[in-house]
Amino acid sequence: MPDTPTAARRSERARAAILAAAAELIRELPYAKLGIEAIAARAGVGKQTIYRWWPSKGAVVFDAMLESDSGPAGLALPDTGDVAADLRALLRGSIAALTAPGYESFLRAMYIEIQQDPELAATYRERLLLPQRCAIADRLAAAVDAGELRAGLDLELAIDLLLGPIQMRWSLGLGGLTESYADAALDAALAYLRA
Description:
The protein is mostly helical and 195 residues long.
């Protein structure tokens, strides 16, 4: 006998439909033209259903982006036994994500939203930034333990050296974010990480 629909299952279906609609619309509309109304219409729900879970457009879009980017294992860097190769993949992947056609404008809009909305900024730090930094720190610590990186490495500074150049060039719109730039930034960071 089929399961009887419950409010919880209906709510989860509505939530999933909202996040799917927002993820689709991210790729179709400029951020400024994307509104709660469009998300609600695409998801087949009322605006109040969206506002029940999210306080703003930025919050629902952020959740949609997180949902589409999350993997089953959570945040973890690969550990192939070659920290340079693993970090190269991380930096090249970061550049590919930041410069993806049709997606970069949304990332820029979210970057602005995070600067202007303290609640969204806190959510961003808690659910994305800090877990990412923790995953990188775990990988660096494993490399220190394996003797690939120097003992006593300041992990926070190391993460800043790895990600900072890419984030700075992207946030300032300086361009030049290529795989060769990722490799050069990694080589410069590794000079400190191995010294």
